[in-house]
Write a structure and sequence with these properties.
Layout lengths: L3 H12 L4 H18 L7 H14 L14 H14 L9 H12 L8 H13 L3 H15 L1 H19 L1
Amino acid sequence: MPRQEIIRKAKQDKRAGKSASTQAGEFVKDEIDRIRKGKHGARSTKQAIAIGLSEARRAGVDLPPPRKGRTKKATRRSAKYAYEVGQGKRTAKRRPKVSRAVEGVLKKEPRSTASRSALSKQGKRAASQRSAASRSAAARKASHTKGAKVRSTAAKKAARTRARRRS
């Protein structure tokens, strides 16, 4: 179960008009932190992200399951159940045996999947599968919900990055 602090941050994002995926990002970040602290591991960076998204759905973030053809059937079904639990349409069946077994397996998985380089590689791979128009639209939407102060900071960071690439 995610910490109350994470749920509070996600609700704050919702009030600020941010997208469901941004709200879910709080849960993904928490999951990455848990792996970095050594609480458990993950087989891949994708798995770590998937665990975070599942927790977000269960906590009530309005993040529908992936469409048909995007992921395998079992993943879609799991996401659908998590989404229904979060929306109050289904009660979660507590299965302590399964929970313990999953935790045991995750504890044996590597922690390197939450490293900076692994996350960077995953982000670049995910972005490369999207069209330029889609990436541009996402950036445009993000700039609207940022606010002047954060937008200014982001612009300064971008300028620093460009300067570093030029030299």
